[in-house]
Design goal:
The protein is an alpha/beta fold. The protein folds into two domains: 134 residues, no CATH class; 245 residues, Rossmann fold, CATH 3.40.50.200. It is 20% helix and 26% strand. α4 links the parallel β12 and β13. α4 runs parallel beside α7 and α5 runs parallel beside α6. The longest helix is centred in the C-terminal third of the chain and has 18 residues. It is globular and about 75 Å long.
Length: 415
């Protein structure tokens, strides 16, 4: 005999009444999902799930995933196991545009633990994530995804770094003095949402819990190249061929130094990037070698392994020059090693924290180059490469083309 689980069956009804003031027709449709929870949870142990009701049609049923659809939306139930026992349940609701709107997390007894909701504007761009109280369904926390830009007046347009990443949290006051400005607004662009608000958010893994990366990279650049300004670009994750537009925008603003702490093993993703970067060979792209534990001469990661004269690929070491755990190497494909295994950064929240890896070796090398350009504004790319080679040493078994730069904060050979 299966013990019946305690479960707040009226949850959806109460939840959506709370948000009736701005609930969409699709949201109201999910009021019918109460029967799904009731049927699913009452049969959770026996794994003998019944069809829900006439409003919802089962699309897929496996041990780990259930998907139901009706005329206006989709409900996906993910069942997470540990040692063949249910550990957690995740219910995700999608609207007719296949955009996720509600995520509800339950424990193994089908008891609610967490609710998050995403709000969209008229262009179907997510602008807010709400965390809801599981007892009264009031909004406890709001996380803006496309906030208004601050008014900035930075005027140094001679030594700008382009940061192509997941965007930055430009609402943080400690970032303001290093953000590049043009015509009274942030210089940069969001090629993901296609607007002029490159705010730090990567929803690919889970849109209800987006990852943040660009802000921490920005903080390293700002700290180690304090006289430079930084133009943030949110990379075109939905159409990687738009890298052509990104690079053209950078070129049109006379930016010659780019921080690119990202990559993948899919060459096709980077074909448009390669073609456009080759065309603009006066722009230097400093890219991360990656954190796969690969020799990328044998297992290429792109754009790090692209054969372009204006790409500098960097990997990470500890303070003693030992390659960081998981940091990629390559005698031909990786140019330099920079210590970046325990970096103090400012994260997306504006809080000091520690991180590391090849993503943070890149801004350290970019900052070094930027300080060199500050003192040597007429130096061409060849002079910059020559300077970096003189700063590097070979240490132990050769794992990169030019070796290790022990302290990128040292201005040796710059003055």
């Amino acid at each position: 005999m299966i013990k019946k689980y305690l479960f707040p069956y009226s949850l959806l009804f109460n939840l959506f009444l709370t948000y009736q003031c701005y609930a969409s027709a699709t949201d109201k449709n999910f009021l019918n999902a109460e029967n799904i929870y009731k049927s699913f949870c009452s049969n959770i142990v026996s794994n003998n799930y019944k069809d829900i009701n006439k409003n919802w049609s089962p699309v897929k049923k496996t041990k780990t995933v259930h998907i139901y659809k009706d005329k206006e939306g989709t409900l996906r139930i993910n069942i997470l196991y540990r040692s063949n026992k249910i550990q957690r349940l995740i219910f995700t609701l999608y609207n007719s545009a296949k955009k996720p709107t509600i995520e509800m997390r339950f424990n193994h007894n089908c008891l609610l633990q967490n609710i998050r909701r995403i709000l969209y504007d008229k262009a179907s761009i997510a602008y807010e994530i709400q965390s809801l109280n599981i007892k009264n369904y009031n909004v406890e926390e709001r996380q803006l995804l496309n906030p208004n830009k601050p008014k900035l007046t930075n005027t140094n347009n001679k030594n700008i770094i382009a940061l192509i990443d997941t965007g930055i949290n430009y609402t943080l006051s400690q970032f303001h003095k290093n953000i590049a400005v043009k015509n009274g607004t942030i210089l940069g662009f969001d090629y993901w949402d296609n607007d002029d608000k490159p705010f730090d958010s990567d929803p690919r893994q889970n849109p209800f819990y987006p990852r943040h990366h660009g802000s921490t990279v920005f903080s390293v650049l700002a700290k180690e190249a304090p006289k430079s300004l930084i133009a943030p670009y949110r990379f075109p994750a939905l159409d990687m061929c738009r890298f052509k537009e990104v690079i053209e925008h950078i070129a049109n603003n006379s930016i010659r130094l780019v921080n690119l702490s990202m990559g993948s093993n899919n060459l096709k993703d980077w074909e448009c990037f390669e073609k456009t970067a080759r065309k603009h060979n006066n722009i230097i792209f400093v890219v991360s070698a990656g954190n796969n534990g690969f020799d990328i001469d044998k297992q290429p990661i792109y754009p790090a392994a692209l054969n372009l004269k204006n790409i500098i690929t960097v990997t990470s070491s500890d303070q003693n020059g030992r390659i960081g755990r998981g940091s990629n190497i390559g005698k031909s494909s990786v140019d330099f090693i920079v210590p970046a295994e325990r970096m103090e950064v400012i994260d997306h929240r504006g809080v000091k924290s520690y991180t590391g890896g090849t993503s943070y070796a890149v801004p350290r090398l970019v900052a070094l180059i930027s300080r060199f350009i500050e003192k040597n504004p007429n130096a061409n790319s060849d002079k910059i490469f020559e300077f970096l080679k003189k700063r590097s040493i070979q240490k132990g078994i050769k794992k990169t083309k030019f070796g290790w730069i022990p302290d990128p904060l040292d201005d040796y050979l710059i003055n």
